[in-house]
Protein 1
Amino acid sequence: MNLASLLDRAGRCFASRPALALGGRVVLDYRLLAGRVSVIAANLRGQLGLKPGDRVALVMKNCPEYAELMFACWHAGLTAVPVNAKLAGAEFRYILDHSGARVGFTTPDLTTTVGALTGPQAVIEVGGAEWRRLGEGDGMGVAPCDSDDVAWLFYTSGTTGRPKGAMLTHRNLFAMNWGYFADVDAIAPGDAILHAAPMSHGSGLYIIPHVAAGAAQIVPESGGFEPDEIFNLFAAHRGIAMFAAPTMVHRLVAAAESADPDLTGLKTVIYGGGPMYVEDCKRAIGVLGDRLAQIYGQGESPMTITSLARHRFPKAGEPYYEERLASVGMPFGIVDVRVVDGDDAPLPPGEAGEILVRGDSVMRGYWDNEQATAETLRGGWLHTGDIGAFDGDGYLTLKDRSKDVIISGGTNIYPREVEEVLLQHPDVREISVIGKPDPEWGESIVAFVVAQPGRSVSPEELDRLCLDRIARFKRPKEYRFLDSLPKNNYGKVLKTELRQLLSDNR
C-alpha cells in the first residue's frame, strides 16, 4: 500500500478543507493539493524520467511545497530523501552522493550551494520556472508499490559520525501513522499541525497523520520558530498541534510569560528529541495548561518507541507525578520494547540496560550498509544505544546514551564527527568532545583539547575550522585545554572523567 493513498483519499473526503497554509493564509484545499500532487508526480516520471525507487532529495527549508513534494514522490513510486537545511556543503555532498539522488529540490537560499555539488542530475528551485512546469499538465494515478518499498530515506548518524540512511518503508510510516492516533493525540478534520521545527526531521513526519485526518499543514512565513509569530498563528487558526524540541518549549514558555498570548487556538504541544527537565515541564504546564504530550523515538523507529499521550499526561497530585514527568512514557501499542543486559537478556523493572524495539515501525535497515544493519537489527530487535529502565507500571526513563550522542536543541550531534574536524588542525594533538548540561539547549558541546608539544591553538582558530567544515550548530560552545586526556590501560579516553571535570569546575 502506498502512503500517497492517504492524500488521494483526503482529496475526496475533505475536498474543501484547508490543506496547506502559509502563515495565516490558506494556500490550497485538499482537492487542489491532491490534484497538484498527481500532476507533479506525473511530471517527475515524465519530464524528469524518474523510475520507481529512484531517490529525490529535498534540500529545503520549511515551506508549503515540502508537503507537496513528499507526497508527489510517493504518488510517483519514488523515495524522498529529506536533508537538513542547516548542514554544510560537504555534508550535503555526502548525503546526495551516498543516496544516489537523481534530482534535488531546493529553496532559493540553498540553490547555489546544492547546484555546485556533484550528485543530482538536476537541481530544481521551488518557485522557479522549472518548478512551475512540473505543476502543468495531466496527473497520474497513485503508483502501485510494495509495503516494504522505501518511502523516506532518513540520514542519521552513528557512533562513527558518518551519516547512515535509515530506510523507512511505506509499512513503517503507516504503522507510525496509526500509532500517533492511538498513543499521542486525536486529530479532527479542521485541526492543524504547525511546522515550526524542521520538516526534514520530526515535524515532517507529522504531516502524515494530519493528512490522513484532513487537518491543515501550517508553515510560518519565517519558515522557522519565532515565538511572536507562533502566537499570532495560534490566534489565526484553531486546533493547532506543534512538535517542538524541549529547547523550543522552553523558549515558547518564556515568551508566553512575558506576552500573555491568546492560546485558544493551541491544542497540543508534542515534545521530543530528548527528555525535558521536570521543572521545565511543570513551568510549561503552568503557562500552556494541559496541552503537553511527549514522544520518544529514533530515526530508525520514528516517533514510535514510547509516549506520554496527551490524555494520559501526568497531572499534579497523581501518584508518582514527578517520576512520570521525568519518564518518556509507555511503549506504543504497535511495538515491543524491552530493556536488556549486555547479552540482550531482558532485565526486570528498576534495572537499567539498553533499550530494544521491534515492530512494524522499525526501519528495514541502513541504505547500502549491511554491516551496520546486521549490528543494529541483530536478533530482530532495533538496538537503540540508549540506556533506560522501566518502573513497575511500565513507564520508561532514559538514563544515558551508550553512543555518546549529544542532544542540543533536539538535534543529535555525534562527538566523533566534531573530533575528526578539530583534529585536522595541525597544532591539535588530541581531542575529546562531550555534552554539558544546559538549561536552555538540553546540552551544549564542550571540546577538550591537547595541543602538539611546544604549540598552542586558540578557540577562534578552532571555531573557524568547524565553521568551514560542519554545520554551525555542531560547533563547540566551549574549549577546555589540557596537558593530556584521561585514559584507561587500553588507551581509551575516559569521558566519564571529563564529565566529572566539568561538574567539578563549573
Protein 2
Amino acid sequence: MARVRLSVAERREELLRAAIEQIQARGVAAVRIADVASALGVSNALVLYHFSTKEKLVAAAFAYAAEDDLAHLRKLLGRRTSALRRLRAAVRWYAPTGQAKGWRLWIEGWAAALREPALRDVTKSLDQQWKAAIAEVIAEGVAAGEFRCPDPAAAALRLTALLDGLAVQLTSYPGAVPRARAQEWADEALARELGLPGER
C-alpha cells in the first residue's frame, strides 16, 4: 500500500512526534536520525531534508513538546474562575503527581541543554513562559484581593523550582518521596506563597 503524501507541515509534525517518542525511549544522547526514520518507515535523507542535523531535530522536537504543554497551561489559566482556582488547577496538573506527561523528556532535555545551545534556548524559553504565566495569574489574584503576594515573579520561580525538583525525585528515584507527600508539599508551597492559612 502506498504511503499517503503529506504536506511539508504535516510531515514535519509527524517527524517531531516520532522524535519525541524516540527521545523518551532512548534518551537524547542515544537517539539517532536513523531511529526516527525507522519508526516511521522513511529514509534518513527525508529526516535530514526537514532537519539538517540531529541537534536541530532534537531542539525542534522539544519546542514542539513545549508548545503543547504551554497550550494546556494557558487553557487552565484562562478559565473563567478565581485566580486561586486557576493556580491550584495549574499546580495540580504540572506537579509530578498530576496529569502532566513527559517529565522524563524534560529531565533529559535539561541535562542535554547543558551542552546544546539550541536546546538550552528552547528549555529556557519554556521555563520563562511558564513562570510568567503563573506570575501573571498571581498578580491578578493580588489585584482582586483574593490573596497576598508581594512579589509574584519570585513566588512563581520558587514554586516552579520546587515542582521541578520534585519531578526529578519522583521520576529518577521512584519511591524516594511518596506521591501523596509530594502533592501535600506542592499544595503547602502554593498556600505559603499566597499567604493563605493552608489548603482550603
Protein 3
Amino acid sequence: MKKFFRIFWLVVLALVVFGTFWFLWNKSKPVVKLYQVEEVTVGNIQKNTVATGKVEPRNEILIKPQMSGIIAEVYKEAGDMVKAGDVIAKIKVIPDMVSLNSAESRVQRAQISFDQLKKNYERDLSLYNQKVISKEEFEKTELQYKNDKEELKSAQDNLSLTRDGISSDKSQLSNTLVRSTINGTILNVPVKVGNSVIQSNNFNDGTTIATVANMNDMLFVGKLDETEVGRIKVGMPMDITIGAIENTKLSAILEYVSPKGTEENGAIMFEMKAAVTVPSDVFIRAGYSANAEITLSKLEKVVTIPESCIEFNGDTSFVYVLKKVEPQTFEKKQVKTGMSDGMKIEIKSGLKVKDKIRGAEILEKKPEVKRPE
C-alpha cells in the first residue's frame, strides 16, 4: 500500500512539473498580431480651413429724426418690409417757448399790417375805378397789399413749423414724419410712443428711430488665424454653413481680408468678409453664427493612401507592403509623399495603384493556455 501511494505522488509531481514547463513555454511564444489591409487607390485630396463668424447685412442703415421732439406714433415694427419713403414714425414737436412767442408776435404784427393795407387797397381800388387816382398810384398800393399778404402767410407758416413742425402746404414733406431711406427689412425699432428723441447735429449723433437693411445682400464676417491667412486671397470661393439652418450650404466669394490683425486669446486673428449668395427660398436672420469652409488647395486623380499607414523616420516616410496573407507578412518600403488633408495623403512614388499595405492593428491574439490544476 505504501508503494502505491509513493508511485501516485511521484506521478502527480511529474504532471505538475510537466504542466508548469508547458505553460511557461506557451507563454514565451511570440504574440500574433493582425492588421487591417488597405489598398492604394486613386482619389482627390482637398485641403480646407474653417473660419468662424456670423452672417450679417452688408449695410445696416440707422434712421435718424430731422427734428427733436416726442414719438407720437410708431407705424412699423421689426421684421416689416419697407420701401424708400415709407413712414416709420411720427414726431410731436415740443416748441421752444422763446421761439414760439416770437413766432406768434410776428403773426400778430403781420396781421395788423395786412388789415391796414387791405383797407387802403380796397379804397384805392374804388378810387381807381372812379378814375380819381392814376393807375401808377393804384399799382403801388396793390404791390404793397400783395407783399403784406405774403408776409402774413409766411409768418403763419413759421408759427405752424415752430409749434407743430409742419406747414399747411408742405404736409407731405414734414420733418415730423420719419421715413425709411432705403428698401429693406426693419431689423430693430428701439423707440416707443412717448420717448423723447433728438435730431442729429454736429455735437450729437441723434436718436436712432429704426435700423433698416437689405436682407438679400448679406456678408459672412469671420476671423482667420495668422498661420492660414497668407494662403487665402480675394475672389476665392467658400461654402457657408449656418448652424440654425440644417442641411443647407450657401456659396460665397471672399471680398476682403483685413491688412491688420488683432490679438485674441494669445493668437493673431485677421478679419475677413465674403459676399453670400442667398437663394430665394432661404431666409437668413441678421447675426446667425456660421462657419466658412475655404479650399486652400486641391489635387484630383492622384495616388492616395490613408495617412495613418505612413511611418515617419525623420524626413523619410515608410509603409509596410503586404507580401503574404497567411500568416500576414509585410515588407518595409520607402515612399515619397505629397499633400495631405489630414485623412488621406498623396503618394508621389514608391507605390502603385491596388498595392496592399498595412493599416491599423485590429487584433492581438495569444494562444489559449490552461493552467494545470
